C-alpha cells in the first residue's frame, strides 16, 4: 500500500511537473478531510507521511475530561489512562486512527480534496510556465483529437487546438509537430487548459517576428495584420530606420523569409505592405499585388470612403478571388474601398455630366414654354456620339422624331436591335411627356442588342 502511494506520487510528479512536496501536502489535506468526515471535529487531527517509506499516520488529538460531551474532541480519563498511566484531566492525548476505518464516504471526500489540490498545483505549474506567454508561438506534438479538436502535448501540460482555430483544409496526424499561437489559458473541470490558434492574425505577426530579426530588434514595427485564413494575409510594416527597407527585410534574400512563413501557413498568400501615414498612399499599397492609377478619399467622420481607379486589366486582381484582396485592404487600412476600372470611371463620369446637362436643359425648357429644340439627341441617357450620328443620318435628328418613330424603323439601323430601339423611343417619349412638368428621370440604355 505504501509503495503504491509512492508510485502514484512519483507518476504525478513526472507527468504533471508537480513537486513531490506539493503532492504530499495535497495528500495530507485529503486525509484530514476524510478524518473530519468520518469522526467529526475540527482542527484536532494531524497527518504524517514519510516521503521515503510512504508510511501514513493519522493522529486524533483529544482533551481528557471527567465527563465526555463531545466524543470527537474529548476522551474520558479512564480511557486515557489505558494508553497513558500518567494522564490527567485537562491534558491532551493523541491516538492513531486506522485509515481503513474511514469508510466509503470519507474516502470519496479525500479523493475530491486530492483532485482539487492536484488541479490547483497543475494550474500553478502551467501559470509559471506559460503565464507570460499568451500571444506567443508555442511548439507541440499532436497526441490525439476529440470532436474535431486536436489535443497537443506541450511538455508539462496539454493544450487544445479547437476546430474554429484551425486553418481550412488543415489536418494533422498523431505525432506531428506543430506551431501555434497561445491564445488563452483557462480552468476547466478537467484541469487547466491552454487554447491554441493557427488562424489568429497575431500568428502571422509572430511568425514574421521569428523570421525577421529587424522586427524582433524593434527596427521594424508590425502596424497591423489581417487574414482570411488559408487564402490571403496582409501585413503592414513600418521602418523606424529610413535606411532599412521594411518590405525587402520581410521578404528576405530570394524570398527565404516570407517563404518560411508561407510554408507554415500551408500556402496562404502573404502581402507585405509598407505602412504610410497618408491614407491614399497606404490604401494604394494595401491593394497589392494590384496597382492603383489614382485614389481619392472622403472622410465623413462616421464613414471613411476611398475610391480607387485601376487599369481595366488590373480590376480582377484588385478585387481578388471572391473579393479577398479588396476586403483585406479595407480591413488593413480601416477605410471602405470602392474599386473602379478606368473604363467604368469614364462611363460614370460621362453619365454624371450628361445627367447634369439634361437636368439643366429641362429646367431651361420649363421657363421657355416647352421648347425642346434646345435638346440634342446626345442628351438622352445612353446615346453616345456614334449612335447619335447613325440616328441623324437616318433622319431621326430630334427628340420628337425619335419619340414618334416605330421600333421597326429604328431597329433596322446599324447597331440598333429591337430592345435598344424600344428603350430609346420610350426614353424620348417619357422626356417629352414630362418636359412641361417634372424633370425627366435618367434611364440607362443597353449599349446594343446584337449587330
From TrEMBL:
Q: How does it assemble?
A: Monomer. Binds directly to the core enzyme of the DNA-dependent RNA polymerase and to nascent RNA.
GO cellular component terms given for this protein = cytosol
Listed name of the protein: Transcription termination/antitermination protein NusA
Q: Where in the cell is it found?
A: Cytoplasm
Gene symbol of the encoding locus: nusA
Q: Which residues cross the membrane?
A: none
What Gene3D superfamilies does its record include?
A: 3.30.300.20, 5' to 3' exonuclease, C-terminal subdomain, Nucleic acid-binding proteins, NusA, N-terminal domain
The answer on whether this UniProt entry bears the keyword RNA-binding reads yes
Q: What does this protein do?
A: Participates in both transcription termination and antitermination.
Q: Which PANTHER family match?
A: TRANSCRIPTION TERMINATION FACTOR NUSA, TRANSCRIPTION TERMINATION_ANTITERMINATION PROTEIN NUSA
The record's listing under HAMAP family reads: NusA_B
Fetch the SMART domains from UniProt.
KH (SM00322), S1 (SM00316)
What is the organism field in this record?
A: Leptospirillum ferriphilum YSK
Report the PROSITE patterns cross-referenced here: KH_TYPE_1 (PS50084), S1 (PS50126)
**Origin superkingdom:** Bacteria
Molecular function (Gene Ontology), one example: DNA-binding transcription factor activity
Decide whether keyword RNA-binding is in the record.
yes
Query: What is the similarity comment for this entry?
Result: Belongs to the NusA family.
* Domain S1 motif positions: 135-199
Keywords recorded for this protein, A-Z: Cytoplasm, Elongation factor, Protein biosynthesis, RNA-binding, Transcription, Transcription antitermination, Transcription regulation, Transcription termination
Amino acid at each position: 500500500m505504501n509503495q503504491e502511494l509512492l508510485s502514484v506520487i512519483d507518476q504525478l510528479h513526472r507527468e504533471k511537473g508537480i513537486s513531490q512536496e506539493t503532492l504530499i501536502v495535497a495528500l495530507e489535506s485529503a486525509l484530514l478531510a476524510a478524518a473530519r468526515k468520518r469522526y467529526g471535529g475540527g482542527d484536532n487531527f494531524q497527518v504524517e507521511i514519510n516521503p521515503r517509506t510512504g508510511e501514513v499516520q493519522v493522529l486524533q488529538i483529544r482533551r481528557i475530561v471527567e465527563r465526555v460531551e463531545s466524543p470527537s474532541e474529548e476522551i474520558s480519563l479512564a480511557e486515557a489512562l489505558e494508553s497513558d498511566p500518567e494522564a490527567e484531566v485537562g491534558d491532551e492525548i493523541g491516538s492513531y486512527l486506522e485509515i481503513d476505518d474511514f469508510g466509503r464516504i470519507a474516502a470519496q471526500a479525500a479523493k475530491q480534496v486530492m483532485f482539487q489540490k492536484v488541479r490547483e498545483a497543475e494550474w500553478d505549474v502551467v501559470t509559471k510556465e506559460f503565464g507570460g506567454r499568451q500571444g506567443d508561438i508555442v511548439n507541440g506534438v499532436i497526441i490525439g483529437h476529440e470532436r474535431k479538436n486536436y489535443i497537443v502535448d506541450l511538455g508539462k501540460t496539454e493544450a487544445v487546438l479547437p476546430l474554429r482555430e484551425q486553418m481550412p483544409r488543415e489536418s494533422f496526424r498523431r505525432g506531428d509537430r506543430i506551431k501555434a499561437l497561445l491564445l488563452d489559458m483557462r480552468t476547466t473541470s478537467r484541469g487547466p487548459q491552454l487554447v491554441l490558434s493557427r488562424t489568429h492574425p497575431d500568428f502571422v505577426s509572430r511568425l514574421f517576428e521569428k523570421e525577421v530579426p529587424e522586427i524582433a530588434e524593434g527596427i521594424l514595427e508590425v502596424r497591423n495584420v489581417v487574414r482570411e485564413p488559408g487564402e490571403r494575409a496582409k501585413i503592414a510594416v513600418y521602418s523606424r530606420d529610413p535606411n532599412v527597407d521594411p518590405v525587402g527585410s520581410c521578404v528576405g534574400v530570394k524570398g527565404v523569409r516570407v517563404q518560411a512563413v508561407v510554408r507554415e501557413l500551408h500556402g496562404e498568400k502573404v502581402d507585405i505592405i509598407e505602412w504610410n501615414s497618408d491614407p491614399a498612399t497606404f490604401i494604394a499599397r494595401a491593394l497589392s499585388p494590384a496597382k492603383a492609377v489614382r485614389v481619392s478619399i472622403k472622410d465623413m467622420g462616421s464613414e471613411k470612403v476611398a475610391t480607387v481607379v485601376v487599369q481595366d486589366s488590373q480590376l480582377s486582381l484588385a478585387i481578388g478571388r471572391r473579393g479577398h484582396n479588396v476586403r483585406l485592404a479595407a480591413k488593413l487600412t480601416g477605410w471602405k474601398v470602392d474599386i473602379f476600372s478606368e473604363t467604368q470611371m469614364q462611363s460614370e463620369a460621362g453619365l454624371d455630366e450628361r445627367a447634369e446637362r439634361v437636368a439643366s436643359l429641362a429646367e431651361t425648357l420649363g421657363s421657355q414654354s416647352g421648347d425642346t429644340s434646345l435638346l440634342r439627341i446626345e442628351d438622352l441617357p445612353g446615346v453616345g456620339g456614334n449612335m447619335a450620328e447613325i440616328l441623324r443620318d437616318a433622319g431621326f435628328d430630334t427628340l420628337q422624331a425619335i419619340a414618334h418613330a416605330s421600333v421597326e424603323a429604328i431597329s433596322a439601323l446599324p447597331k440598333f436591335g429591337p430592345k435598344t430601339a424600344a428603350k430609346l423611343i420610350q426614353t424620348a417619349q417619357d422626356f417629352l411627356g414630362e418636359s412641361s412638368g417634372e424633370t425627366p428621370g435618367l434611364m440607362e440604355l443597353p449599349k446594343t442588342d446584337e449587330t
